[in-house]
Amino acid sequence: MQILPPRWKYWHDMEWRPQLRKLRDPARENRRGFLRRQRSWKLKTTRLRRRRKWSRCEVHRPVCSASKWYHYSGTLIARRQKELVRQTWALEKSETARKADEELLDQLQSRCDELRAQHAEAELQLAEVEGHNRHATDRTRKELVLRVNRCLRGYACWEVTARERMTLREMEIRAAALMSGDNRSRRRLAKRLESFLSRSRYAIANLEAEVASVLRRFGLRRRADEWTGRKLVSSGGSHRRHSR
């Protein structure tokens, strides 16, 4: 009994393989031919189908492109129409707004012209009123200054005259008493007369300063200076009279 090697476990060994190959070769060839024919037939069929498809596409391509272009042009036209409508509406709206702005601007311009005219008229009226008030104020001030000056002059003259009369009368009385009294009474009388004369001079100076300040307050500085000089002259003459 022959023992097969471990790798040849089946009945086909090296001796039988060539015979099996010979038996299988025709079947293989037939199968290969069938497959080759089938593949070529499929290729031919595919080519024919592709040619038919291409021919159809070539024939219908202008129609398809025309239909597509027509559809695209219709869509584009509709889009452009919508855009045109939107722009037209925006233009009408802007035109309406522009007209409204122009009307409002005209109204504001006319109102500004009216207000300018009223302002000019009011300025003229104000200038006239200010002129009348200025003239009235000047006239009233002048009249008031004249009255005050007259009153102050009269009052000052009266007070100075009264002071002089009182001073002269008291001096006469004191002189008579001095002639009839002793030395002590004479000295006392001389002191009193001197104090009285100094008080009268001080009162006259205060009165003159008050009159001058009132005249300066009314804007009559020149008249105040003239009044002060006149009073100084008169007071000097009266003092000279008293000294005599």
From TrEMBL:
Keywords: Coiled coil. The keyword Coiled coil applies. Residues 91-132 form a coiled coil. The keyword Coiled coil applies. It comes from the Eukaryota. This is Uncharacterized protein. It comes from Marchantia polymorpha subsp. ruderalis. The lineage of its organism: Eukaryota, Viridiplantae, Streptophyta, Embryophyta, Marchantiophyta.
